[in-house]
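User: Some background: our group keeps a shared notebook of sequences we're curious about, and every so often someone picks one and asks for a predicted structure to add to the entry. Today it's my turn. The entry only has the sequence so far, pasted here. Could you supply the structure so I can complete it?
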Amino acid sequence: MNSLLSRALELQHAAHELMYLGMDGEPIYSDTFCRLNKELLVKSDSLFSSQSSNIEEEANLCLALLMGYNATIYDYGDKGQKKQAVLDRIYNVLEKLPDSLLKVRLLTYTYGEVYEESMLQEAHDIISNWNKSALTIEQMEVIEELKNIEENPYPFEVI
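Assistant: Of course. Here's the predicted structure to add to the notebook entry:
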C-alpha cells in the first residue's frame, strides 16, 4: 500500500529519525547523515505537489512536509518557498481540523517556524484538556517537543 497517508507518515518518521540522529548515544557517520538528508529531501519533494481532500490526511501531509524540509540540510534553492507554501496550506487546515493530537503536532511544528503566540496558546489549550494521568507516548512526546521549542526558540531572534 502506497497511499498518500502512508507516504506522509513514512516521511514524518524519516524526518523524526534525522532530527534525533545521535540522541541515543550512537555515533553519527557522515555518509549515513548525508544519505538520510538526501533521501528526506527527495521524499519531501516527491510529496510536495500532493494534496488531499480529507482534512486529516492533508494535515498529516502538511506536517510531514514541514518536518521533512526542516530536518534536511539540503536545499536546491527553493526550499524556503516550498516551506512557505506548506505553511500557507497549514493555516487553511488548522481552521478545519478538530482538536486532536494531530492538531497539537501541527500547531507545535508550525509554531516552531513562525512563533505566533496564538498557535502556542491553542496547543496549550488542547493539551490542558487531556487526561494527565493517562497520556499516550505520542502525547508525551508532543508536550516535550512543544516545551523544547518554547525554551529554545532557535533560529528565531529578535532584532
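Suggested note for the entry: The chain has a mean pLDDT of 92. Residues 38 and 74 are 7 Å apart (CA to CA).
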